[in-house]
Structure formats: structure tokens, C-alpha cells
Design brief:
LRR_dom_sf, about 10% strand, seven-stranded mixed beta sheet, alpha/beta, single chain, Acidic leucine-rich nuclear phosphoprotein 32-related protein 2
Length: about 220
């Protein structure tokens, strides 16, 4: 016979839905996105029996839940490895990201992310978005205070757009295992685009990283007098 685990009734619940606790969002450093599917989704999955019919949520209860989540006061957060396989999970994930107005350290590793350009993280100093599906620097969030950025193992093809970080305090950048790593004069181009950068792919700025432009480039210029 098939027996459900005792916790089966909690499989789609967030911590806000569990009674008699006072845990707030900024106390959770590694939360999981567990927003439940819609009733229609449950029906097609054959799981409509797993959740009891919830009472109508009042505006007061919605506001209390928003205050308890408290993501606005979160300074350090790890939302990596979320396995965002369902649309309802992805929507809840982005909803949380939009509320991180004070986060300073954020890890979003291995979430199959493709575009966060609509997101602004005004205080973020350290961002790790390794092992995602970004193809361009233009798809990253607005991060004006960024100091340490990891983009390892994405699919960034060219260094176009990297100069957008020229006016940020960016000190270290990791681009390992991106196609742009094989671009000719890769390190020189990155450091010339980002004069304040001190470290690339874990290696400090070297004298040869500041070499002048290839003299052969001048022979391609046609001057008409």
C-alpha cells in the first residue's frame, strides 16, 4: 500500500504559512522557493487532494505576510540551486529579487537564469551568478555599487557591454569558462575597458595586461591628406 509522508501536507507551504513562529525573511540566508502551484496545475498533476481548500486571505493577512517576509532588510542571501522548473517557482523567485533593495551579498548560482536586466540591486557589492545562461553583460541587473562579480560558466560570447561597469567600484571579475575568454587579447581588452579592475579570473592585474594596442592595428588605418 502507498502511504504518504507525514510532511506531505506541507510540501507547497512557505514558512509564512506555518503557524506559531516569528522567523523573518532577513534571518533566512539560504531559503528555498517553494511557492505552491495553482489549483489548475494541481488538477493536471493529479495532486488536488494534497492541499486543503484555503480560506480567503484578507488584505490584513497579506500585509502581515509581506512584513514577515521582510526581504527589504536582507543584507546577505543565497538563492542558489533553486531548481526553478515550474513557472510559479520562477515568478516567486523574481518577486523576492525585486524586494532586495538593501542586499549587499547575493548568490544566484545554477538557476538557469537568462535575463535579470529589469532588476536593480542598489547596494549589492558582491554578486555570484555563475553557472547560469547569460549571453551578454546587458542581461545583468543594475548593480552600481558592485565590487566583486562572478560570471563563471555562462555563455557570454563577446566583451561587448563590459564597459557599462566602468563607472562602478568593480575590483574583481570572474569570466572563466565563457566563450569570450578565447577572444584575442582577452585580458588586455578587459583591463582597458575597466581601469579600476584589480583582478580577473583570480589573477591580479599584471604588467602585460596593460600593454599598448597591437601596432599592427595602425597599418589597417587609411589616412587621406
Amino acid at each position: 500500500a502507498f502511504f504518504k509522508l507525514p510532511s506531505d501536507s506541507f510540501k507547497y507551504l512557505g514558512w509564512c504559512d506555518i503557524e506559531e513562529h516569528d522567523v523573518q525573511g532577513n534571518q533566512l540566508h539560504c531559503p528555498r522557493v517553494r511557492e505552491g502551484p495553482s489549483e489548475e496545475e494541481q488538477f493536471f498533476r493529479g495532486e488536488e487532494h494534497t492541499l486543503k481548500k484555503r480560506k480567503q486571505v484578507t488584505d490584513t493577512e497579506k500585509w502581515q505576510k509581506k512584513l514577515q517576509e521582510n526581504w527589504e532588510n536582507c543584507a546577505e542571501l543565497n538563492l542558489s540551486f533553486q531548481d526553478l522548473g515550474d513557472l510559479y517557482q520562477l515568478e516567486n523567485f523574481k518577486r523576492i529579487l525585486q524586494r532586495l533593495i538593501r542586499v549587499e551579498k547575493l548568490w544566484l548560482v545554477d538557476n538557469s537564469l537568462t535575463d535579470l536586466s529589469a532588476l536593480r540591486l542598489p547596494r549589492c557589492r558582491e554578486l555570484n551568478v555563475s553557472k547560469n545562461h547569460f549571453t551578454s553583460f546587458k542581461q545583468l541587473p543594475k548593480i552600481p555599487q558592485i565590487q566583486h562579480l562572478s560570471l563563471a560558466e555562462n555563455n557570454i560570447m563577446t566583451l561587448s557591454g563590459i564597459s557599462d561597469f566602468r563607472h562602478t567600484p568593480l575590483e574583481s571579475l570572474i569570466l572563466k569558462r565563457n566563450p569570450c575568454e578565447f577572444q584575442e587579447r582577452y585580458r588586455q581588452v578587459v583591463f582597458s575597458s575597466l581601469p579600476n579592475l584589480k583582478m580577473l579570473d583570480g589573477i591580479p592585474k599584471l604588467p602585460e595586461d596593460c600593454s599598448p594596442p597591437d601596432i599592427r592595428a595602425f597599418f589597417k588605418i587609411c589616412t587621406i591628406l
